[in-house]
Design a protein that fits this description.
UbiD C-terminal domain-like; 26% strand; 23% helix; Pnp Oxidase, Chain A; alpha+beta; nine-stranded antiparallel β-sheet; 2 domains; 23 strands; globular
Length: 456
């Protein structure tokens, strides 16, 4: 393992070694208002989802990186493993937490440039406007750090930040988020909540802080586990928080307990617009950054957003379903279910009924999940067509079961009474007795195709 500090830049160097199917650089000038996202969307419709580096974004001197998380291969690269080792590595490392280390400002590239008060204009940054009806430019790749005023435990999460003026951000705090619970504690004390928003750091850090852990856990320690080293943190300038020393940009500010302003809409992971509401306001007092910062965008409402949000949640669901079935082989939330609402689980089934227990465990572990499909271990759950074929050939209508009016999430476009939903489990495993023998072609698993078709 290299001793070089991990950063967005070290990861981009790795991406540059991959083929164009995984990483492309756009030199032509492009507008941050819809045009850059239109290019990404056009390729996505062709089932191509490379990471992008936009070198020449109109109105800004900063380059923009986007769509990093739209590929499991690229997320696996962030952990330094092959794609087929990604899930096992993610699940194993998450529990091996590594505390961060505090470094001096002189050792922190993110302190190379400091803007204060009247120097600040958030509109100078190349934040994208993603969709036709979005309220405007949003910071979608910001990692907001806060601290619980009762326990002192740090909390970090990704939230949507609307650039509403030169020095203010609107923020949506979903009702079930840790940040919303912590903010309520500050409001009860009539205190402003300090925040520090990191924009642009190593992708493993993003995966770590978005893990589905309890409020008592410092997610930076989980990020350290995924990065396999202590995360170097540096104290902020104006708030009592610490941020990654090798980040690109950090915004420091406060959320008052009683200030609200309209925020939204923006296209959400569900593929529909999040509603406009009276939301808290972040007032930015200081910005620190590198001399030549890189802006990180997350393509909202698309696989970049869906896989980043859904993948880190899998570890907690995996642990829960292993109680129901110790022989769980793999678990995945596909982009077909926007990375939240559909969960595929592959198991080595030992008993009839075991698959239904697995589905129930998954529903209990993650309230976002609406549909669970449990399949045998020979099914590739990263291929939707294989899962559908298992449903077609290995299940009957009585293999489906429904849980009515369970807790879901308010972003579900068809939620009842704001957040209730019906949930369906599907046992698409073979019956242990009486299932016909399936066809197989001898030698298909070992034949070398290149011996016959070199161009393949």
């Amino acid at each position: 393992m290299s001793d070089e500090p991990l950063s967005l830049r070290t990861y981009l160097e790795q991406l540059r070694q991959l083929p164009p199917t995984e990483f492309v650089r756009v030199e032509k000038e492009i507008s941050p208002v819809h045009e850059a996202c239109a290019l990404m969307d056009a390729l996505e419709k062709q089932n191509r989802r490379p990471a992008f580096l936009f070198a020449n974004v109109r109105g800004s001197a900063l380059p923009v990186v986007s769509n990093i998380f739209a590929s499991r291969r690229r997320m696996a690269l962030a952990l330094g493993v092959a794609e087929n080792q990604f899930s096992a590595t993610l699940f194993a490392r998450e529990a091996q937490r590594i505390p961060p280390e505090i470094v001096a400002a002189s050792a922190a590239p993110v302190k190379q440039v400091i803007w204060r008060d009247d120097e600040i204009d958030l509109r100078r940054f190349p934040a994208f406007t993603h969709h036709a009806d979005d309220a405007g430019a949003y910071i979608t790749g910001g990692l907001m750090a806060i601290r619980d005023p009762e326990t002192g435990v740090r909390n970090v999460g990704v939230y949507r930040h609307w650039i509403s003026s030169a020095r203010t951000l609107g923020i949506h705090l979903s009702e079930s988020s840790h940040a919303n619970l912590i903010y309520a504690k500050y409001c009860a004390r009539r205190q402003a909540m300090p925040v520090a928003i990191t924009i642009g750091y190593h992708p493993a850090f993003y995966l770590g802080v978005l893990s589905f852990v309890g409020l008592e856990v410092d997610e930076v320690e989980v990020a350290g586990a995924l990065m396999q080293r202590p995360v170097p943190l540096v104290p902020c300038e104006t708030v009592d928080l610490q941020v990654p020393a090798h980040a690109e940009i950090v915004l420091e500010g406060f959320i008052a307990p009683d200030e609200r302003a309209a925020e939204g809409p923006i296209g959400e992971y569900s593929g529909t617009y999040g509603y406009q509401d009276a939301a808290p306001v972040i007032r930015i007092h200081t910005i620190t950054m590198r001399r030549d910062p890189i802006w990180l965008d997350i393509f909202a409402g698309h696989p970049d957003h869906q896989l980043l949000g859904g993948t880190p949640r899998l570890a907690s669901t995996y642990r829960a379903v292993r109680v129901a079935c110790p022989l769980v082989r793999e678990i995945y939330m596909p982009t077909a279910g926007v990375g939240r609402y559909i969960c595929y689980i592959a198991i080595k089934k030992r008993f009839e009924g075991e698959a239904k227990n697995v589905a129930c465990a998954a529903f209990g572990a993650d309230p976002f999940i609406k549909y669970v499909v449990v399949v045998d271990e020979d099914v590739n759950i990263f291929d939707d067509s294989e899962v559908l074929q298992a449903i077609a050939l290995r299940s009957r209508a009585d293999s489906f079961f429904m849980i009515e009016r369970a807790k879901g999430h308010s972003t579900d476009p068809v939620a009842l009474d704001e957040y209730l939903t019906h949930k369906i489990g599907i046992d698409a495993t073979r019956p242990l007795k009486g299932y016909p023998k399936e066809i197989a072609v001898p030698g298909a698993e070992t034949i070398n195709v290149k011996d016959y078709l070199p161009e393949f």
